[in-house]
Specification:
about 100 residues, 5 helices, mainly alpha
Length: about 100
């Protein structure tokens, strides 16, 4: 299975999330990256891994309850669950071979 790269969050929503989470410096601190990296996210969109991290870290924050963020995360989680299911099926087929 080839590596799947997830689309970043839209520019408008990325800027909104960063602003609502107290700005570039605070998001950089929380994500343990430089402020320059967060500034790039404002221009290119928040990457999938950072969206998931911020969503979990600030799950009770109003901006994280935005439907657009949730939809993107559920599609990522759905893809991840498919990978787990495939791995589980492979593990099951090998289960009885050496027992």
């Amino acid at each position: 299975m080839p590596y799947k790269r997830y689309k970043p969050l839209s520019l408008e929503l990325s800027k909104e999330v960063i602003a609502d989470l107290d700005g570039t410096s605070e998001v950089a601190l929380q994500c343990r990256v430089t402020s320059a990296a967060v500034s790039q996210w404002k221009k290119n969109g928040l990457p999938g891994p950072q969206i998931r991290f911020l969503r979990e870290r600030f799950k009770n924050h109003p901006v994280m309850k935005n439907e657009s963020i949730c939809v993107g995360l559920y599609s990522i989680i759905g893809c991840f669950n498919k990978v787990l299911a495939i791995g589980y099926e492979v593990g099951d087929s090998k289960k009885g071979m050496g027992d």
